Amino acid sequence: MVKVMGINHVGIGSGFDGGGGVRGINDVSEMPNITKELVARGYTEEDIQKIWGGNLMRVFSEVQKVAREIQKEEISGK
Prior knowledge:
mainly alpha
C-alpha cells in the first residue's frame, strides 16, 4: 500500500478479536510482530508511527477542523 499511496495514507487497525488472515497475527498479543516486520523492511520510526495511528489522528484532526468551520458557517447563516 505504501508503494501505491505513499506513507502518509496508510494505517493499521484491528478488531482485536483475531488475526483476520494476517500470518503471524493470531490475536492482539502478536500485533508487535507487525512492527518487527516493518523495522526489518527498513521503515523509519517516523514511518511506523504514521502507520500505527499518526495518519489516522492527522486526518481525524482535519475532519474536526472542517466540521467546526461548517458549524460556524451554519450558525452565521452563510
